[in-house]
Amino acid sequence: MYERRSPDAARVEKAKTVIYVRNGSQLPVEVKQLAYSMYTRWWKPVLGSKLVSEQVPGKVPIRAFVNDLRIPPRRTWNNKAYPYEFDVAHTVPERAQQLDLVQGVRCEIDWLLLIDNAGVKWEIQPGRGGRAKRIRWYNRPKEYQPQQFFQTTRRR
Fold first, then answer.
1. In a domain, 2, yes or no
2. Structural domain contains residue 106
3. Is residue 41 part of a domain?
4. pTM for the whole thing?
5. pLDDT tens digits, residue range 4-17?
6. Considering 8, 18, 36, 143, which has the largest number of Cβ atoms within 10 A of its Cβ?
7. How many other CB atoms sit within 10 Å of the CB of residue 132?
8. 49: helix, strand or coil
9. Selection from 128, 106, 103, 124 nearest residue 115 by Cα
């Protein structure tokens, strides 16, 4: 859904995201962590003109997490009832006027850490494509990933 705005309207600095996660397997899964990044794109005037503008990317991406979801088999989870709202004011480049109407805020899922019904831990990186990667006891956590998900089994 797009909004029509006049060039003199106040700058939009908030964004809402709705996340959809589908369990395509025949067994329930528990998503321990879903990490995604949001990228902004802004309109910036060229040579002081309001009619001619260029698109510039935001300064830094915004990293966000969703934790502890249970998804039944062949079902989709979403947060449509309670979308996440983010302040994107800190990503505004110099002299930018407004968020781009088409791709002003773009979300990309970085990874999903999940446990299947058999207790096996998996990592999925949708941006890379390919299959899910099983997490073994010798794997080390990457940046931002929770340490407790990667802990080895206890000895008796």
1. no
2. yes
3. yes
4. 0.76
5. 555 566 777 888 88
6. 36
7. 14
8. strand
9. 124
**Confidence check: pLDDT of 3 > 70:** no
Alpha-carbon span 24 to 150, nearest angstrom: 24
Determine the length of the chain: 156
Structural domains in the chain (count): 1
C-alpha to C-alpha distance for 88 and 3, rounded to whole angstroms? 18
Work out the angle at residue 71's Cα, subtended by the Cα atoms of residues 68 and 77, and round it to the nearest 5 degrees: 90
With respect to residue 55, please indicate whether it lies within any of the assigned structural domains.
Answer: yes
| C-alpha dihedral (33, 85, 109, 54), degrees to nearest 10 | -160
Alpha carbon 87 to chain centroid, angstroms: 14
Considering the chain, what is the average pLDDT of its residues? 81
Residue type, position 130, single letter: G
- DSSP single-letter state for residue 28: -
Summarised one tens digit per residue, pLDDT across range 47-100 is: 665 544 567 777 788 888 888 999 999 999 998 888 888 888 888 888 788 887
Residue at token pair 């934790």: 67
Provide the residue range defining the domain that includes 90.
14-150
